[in-house]
Structures are given as C-alpha cells and as structure tokens.
Amino acid sequence: MTPPTTPETTTPETSPAPTGAGLLQGRVAVITGGAQGLGLAMARSFAAAGADVVIGDLDGDRAQEAAASLGPDMLGMACDVVDDAQVQALLAAAQERTGHLDVMVNNAGITRDATMRTMSEDDFDQVISVHLKGCWNGTRRAAAVMREQRSGAIVNISSLSGKVGMVGQTNYSAAKAGIVGMTKAAAKEMAHHGVRVNAIQPGLIRSAMTEAMPQKAWDQKMAEIPMQRAGEPDEVAGVALFLASDLSSYMTGTVLEVTGGRFM
C-alpha cells in the first residue's frame, strides 16, 4: 500500500537537494550497490559534482545501464562485494581511468527480515556477509590504495537499525551496528595516512520497498519522526557528497544520522 502523499510526508519544494557542482571535480568515486535506490542517488549526486563515477553492483547489466544514465564516460560493472577478488577488480578498473582513487562508498546490501524464531542461519549469514564483510572488503582495499596517495574519503552506509535495533532484523541490525564500529576503527588506523572514514545512518527513506510496507507499519514509523515525513534518496546523497568532499576535511570516524530526528 502506498503511503498518503500529504504535505507532511513529501519533501518541501522550498528545500531542493543541493547539486554540489564542482565539489568532486577531477576525482574518481566508486559506489557499490549503485545501480538503484540510494546507491544510484549518490552516483547521480557525485556525477553532478564533477566526479568520474564507477558503479559496482551484483547485477552487472543494471550497473552498466545506471552508469550510462550518468554520462558516456561513466563505468558500471558486476561486483559481488563478498568476493574480495571482485572488489579488487572494481577498484583496479577505477584506478585505470585516472591513476587514482579518491572516494569509496560501501553501500551494497540486502535484507532477509524475520524474527529470531523463524530466521534461518543462512539468512543471518547472508546479511552479515554482504553488509559487514562486504563493507570490510571495500574499506580495506580502498584504504590500501588511498594510503599510498596520502588522501581519500571512504563513506560507509550503516542504518538507524544499527543504532536502535529493529524487530525482525537481528541480522541487519547487527551488521549495520558492526559497520559503525568498523568505521571508527578504520578511521583511527587511517587518519595519519590522510584517509578519512565516515558513516551515514539513514532512517525511513522513501523507496519502492518502504512504500510497499503495510499502512499500519508506515503510520507507526511516521509517528516516530519529528519532521513528520519520510526522507528522500537525494537527502542521503547530499550527506554522502558532503562526506566525500573537502567540505568535511576535518571529519573522520563520524556517524551522521539522516533520520528526520527519529530516535535522536
């Protein structure tokens, strides 16, 4: 059921997402899970800011289509973030374009929601592997390149679920909480190499998946949001652009919540 489109649940027309033109000019940015949803919104934002964007996604065809939609020089390729060799290949392809790697966004993820009583061990393992190991693969491989350059920004996508825990998401909440700890540890390791590592925790963001939830569940979540509306993908992308750019040059190990004030 699609949620009601009242003034309280739509983005005000007076607050468009900033384009950030020129903020990433001449830089190479890699985004995993970038063929749709938040990943694609971030890819568009980075491209508009001047970045040479490389999209990695489990679906290689969709990755290529998404990259083509950004411009003729953008690259999209298949990448299973759980497979370290594929992550290395994705980063190598990005480096081949300009000889450097400036931004890494670890965004790829899946959900396998169920209560602990009904969740299978495989569903737990898959979510932990994609989110946590996938983020680790991307972070450590990008960091290895960036430390040699003495520069770079890594942005890891966590979730509000990793802060408060959500019913039916023991796997997802654990993985997203783990990403926060990993981000802080990596930030401490890489700071003296000139590499910044930060994380974003989105809350209820409007998407095909969230809009398909039952009306009762939607209303319950809306009641928890002081701003009384869901967020838009571009609003997360704007924060990612901030963390990827020099605007956040003195920030590392930071976790930014994009939640409309929910569970503050």
From TrEMBL:
Keywords: Oxidoreductase
Region (Disordered): 1-21
Record-level GO BP terms: fatty acid elongation
Secreted keyword on record: no
GO molecular function, one term: 3-oxoacyl-[acyl-carrier-protein] reductase (NADPH) activity
Pfam families: adh_short_C2
Cross-referenced PROSITE patterns: ADH_SHORT
SMART domains reported in the protein's UniProt record: PKS_KR (SM00822)
Family: Belongs to the short-chain dehydrogenases/reductases (SDR) family.
Name the record gives this protein: 3-oxoacyl-[acyl-carrier protein] reductase
Gene source species: Janibacter alkaliphilus
Taxonomic lineage from the root: Bacteria, Bacillati, Actinomycetota, Actinomycetes, Micrococcales
